[in-house]
């Protein structure tokens, strides 16, 4: 593309970022993301969510990076919304960190961000997987 003088779009670059994340090449994905920011691309929520998802899936040590990335999103004008939080809640649940996911859920609701069906599905599924069916039913009814 570049040799032909065709400038890649945000869609093209976010697809590349997604591919890098899926292959656990998070450093390269973040580097490409940073280059996009430097070049003035108007990044959308999909690009941010893709990086968040990649960071979440590459190991528990990246939770601090995820939090820093969330702060950066906010600094750049992207309000943290339920989509971004669902990405993290889902990853925590899948890693067996239900208590951390529930803590984040509480934080989200205190901030006035309204959970959606995806949020509840992730948490209820994790509760059931960890043998907490009674708690899951209570959670569903509240």
Automatic annotation (TrEMBL):
Keywords: Repeat. It comes from Gossypium raimondii (Peruvian cotton). InterPro entries: PPR-containing_protein (IPR050667), PPR_rpt (IPR002885), TPR-like_helical_dom_sf (IPR011990). Belongs to the PPR family. P subfamily. PPR repeats lie at residues 9-43, 44-80, 81-115, 116-142. The keyword Transferase does not apply. This is Pentacotripeptide-repeat region of PRORP domain-containing protein.
């Amino acid at each position: 593309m570049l040799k032909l003088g065709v400038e890649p779009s945000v869609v093209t670059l976010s697809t590349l970022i997604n591919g890098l994340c899926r292959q656990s090449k998070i450093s390269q994905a973040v580097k490409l993301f940073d280059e996009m920011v430097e070049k003035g691309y108007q990044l959308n929520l999909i690009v941010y969510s893709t990086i968040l998802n990649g960071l979440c899936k590459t190991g528990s040590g990246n939770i601090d990076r995820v939090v820093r990335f969330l702060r950066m999103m906010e600094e750049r004008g992207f309000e943290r919304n339920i989509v971004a939080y669902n990405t993290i809640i889902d990853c925590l649940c899948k890693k067996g960190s239900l208590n951390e996911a529930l803590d984040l859920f509480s934080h989200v609701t205190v901030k006035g961000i309204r959970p959606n069906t995806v949020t509840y599905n992730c948490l209820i599924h994790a509760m059931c997987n960890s043998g907490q069916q009674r708690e899951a039913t209570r959670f569903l009814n509240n």
